[in-house]
């Protein structure tokens, strides 16, 4: 099965409600779809969002990176040589992790198709059903409480509460949500870099003293402020998770050695795809560090790839934040992984199992 061509599309799916974090507000998923064609007629599908505020990647940069730097290296390559292909992708250029991720996802999809097996089985197997949290956007307190209660009523047992806007209001936001859902859901906070280290310690100690139990706090301070991450990690009981601070395996090793966080959030759009996500999971496992697997605003193609990794690496990926498809008004993808609110189930279809993408705009 040899690669003959790489084509692109744009997928637009409106969100159920605007997605609001300390970094941005978005009302739709708008992602580049990558289709890797082969001489056997098989097509591998990949996807990448333009999360410029986190990865630096835009729609234009994703397409340009693939068209001019990645694709020329891959035409003619045989899918059975998976490691050679991922090495070609990763060494094609610096950064551009979303572009690399989209292509890697499509390549792994084809690898599963080549061996007629769902991807997670080739990655080591596991239980094909996992449970995700759902994001509660940062907003007025009453709105966040209502959104949290509604999520619990929809069956979500884990809520990812976005904070990081205003420290005083953030504390009140979390207290109000905790009072409303207390024993019915675990609360994860994500400040998306919105606090200083001292603010984070103050907020978390205030919440801890008030008896609010939190599962973890994600990326309390600026991505580059690893000293700040360590400062917070050393001073609060709540486990601290690194998200924007770590992209690839080397950064993960540095962060673990610094003891700058307790947990790592792996995202394919930060790692440059599946090969590095697996490396990070293995490194974390060696150090005895737990991981979350997360997503950006992505539809079910790239999130499905993350689901396959999560299932195969369940020994170390113990927390799931793969709510992209649940945030969308509809699922434009036929086939593959089934997203049913908090429950995500992988079918027996080969690779990622994508059969069709509706309303895809060719670019
Ligand atoms: C969608 C997911 N739950 C999430 O919150 N992901 C990111 C932010 C993604 C984005 O801005 O597109 C995160 O910070 O964890
Ligand atoms: Mg985050």
Brief account:
By secondary structure, this protein is of the alpha/beta class. The chain has helices spanning 52-55, 59-74, 82-90, 97-114, 119-122, 141-153, 167-181, 197-209, 226-235, 249-258, 268-271, 274-287, 300-312, 324-327, and strands at 3-20, 25-38, 43-49, 129-131, 134-136, 158-162, 186-190, 216-218, 240-242, 263-267, 290-294, 317-321, 333-335, 338-340, 343-345, 354-357, 361-362. The structure holds the ligand C[C@H](N)C(=O)N[C@@H](CCC(=O)O)C(=O)O and magnesium ion.
Provide keyphrases for this structure.
globular, alpha/beta, 14 helices, binds the ligand C[C@H](N)C(=O)N[C@@H](CCC(=O)O)C(=O)O, TIM Barrel, 363 residues, single chain, Enolase-like, domain 1, 8-stranded parallel sheet, binds magnesium ion
Question: Can you characterise this structure?
Answer:
The chain is α/β, with parallel strands linked by helices. It folds into 2 domains: 2-116, Enolase-like, N-terminal domain (Enolase-like, domain 1, 2-Layer Sandwich), CATH 3.30.390; 121-360, TIM Barrel (Alpha-Beta Barrel). It has 14 helices and 17 strands. The protein has helices at 52-55, 59-74, 82-90, 97-114, 119-122, 141-153, 167-181, 197-209, 226-235, 249-258, 268-271, 274-287, 300-312, 324-327; strands at residues 3-20, 25-38, 43-49, 129-131, 134-136, 158-162, 186-190, 216-218, 240-242, 263-267, 290-294, 317-321, 333-335, 338-340, 343-345, 354-357, 361-362. Strands 5-6-7-8-9-10-11-12 form an 8-stranded parallel beta sheet. The protein has a 4-stranded antiparallel beta sheet with strand order 3-2-1-17. A 3-stranded antiparallel beta sheet has the order 4-15-14, covered by helices on one side. Helix 3 (82-90) packs antiparallel against helix 4 (97-114). The chain is globular and about 60 Å long. The relative contact order is 0.16. The mean pLDDT is 98. Magnesium ion is lined by residues 190, 192, 218-219, 243, 265. Magnesium ion (MG) binds at residues 190, 192, 218-219, 243, 265.
């Amino acid at each position: 099965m040899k690669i003959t061509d790489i084509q692109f599309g744009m997928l637009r799916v409106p969100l159920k409600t605007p997605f609001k974090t300390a970094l941005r507000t978005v009302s739709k998923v708008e992602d580049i779809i990558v289709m890797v064609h082969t001489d056997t007629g098989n097509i591998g599908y990949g996807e990448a969002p333009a999360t410029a505020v986190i990865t630096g990647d835009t729609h234009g940069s994703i397409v340009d990176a693939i068209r001019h730097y990645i694709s020329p290296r891959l035409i003619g390559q045989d899918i059975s040589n998976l490691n050679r292909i991922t090495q070609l992708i990763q060494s094609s250029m610096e950064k551009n992790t979303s572009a690399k991720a989209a292509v890697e996802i499509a390549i792994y999809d084809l690898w599963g198709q080549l061996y007629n097996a769902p991807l997670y089985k080739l990655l080591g197997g596991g239980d094909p059903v996992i449970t995700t949290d759902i994001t509660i956007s940062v907003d007025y307190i009453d709105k966040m409480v209502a959104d949290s209660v509604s999520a619990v009523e929809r069956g979500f047992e884990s809520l990812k509460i976005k904070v990081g806007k205003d420290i005083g209001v953030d504390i009140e936001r979390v207290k109000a949500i905790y009072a409303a859902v207390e024993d019915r859901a675990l609360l994860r906070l994500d400040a998306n870099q919105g606090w200083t280290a001292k603010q984070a310690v103050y907020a978390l100690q205030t919440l801890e003293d008030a008896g609010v139990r939190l599962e973890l706090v994600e990326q309390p301070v600026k991505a580059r402020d690893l000293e700040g991450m360590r400062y917070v990690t050393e001073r609060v009981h709540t486990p601290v998770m690194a998200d924007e601070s770590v992209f690839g395996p080397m950064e993960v090793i540095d962060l673990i050695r610094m003891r700058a966080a307790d947990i790592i959030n792996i995202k394919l759009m930060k790692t440059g795809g599946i090969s590095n996500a697996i490396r990070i999971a293995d490194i974390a496992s060696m150090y005895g560090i737990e991981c979350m697997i997360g997503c950006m605003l992505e539809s079910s193609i790239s999130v499905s790839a993350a689901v396959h990794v999560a299932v195969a690496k369940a020994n170390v990926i113990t927390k799931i934040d793969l709510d992209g498809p649940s945030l969308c008004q509809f699922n434009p993808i036929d086939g593959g992984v089934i997203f049913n609110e908090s429950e995500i189930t992988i079918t027996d279809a080969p690779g990622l199992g994508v059969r069709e993408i509706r309303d895809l705009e060719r670019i």
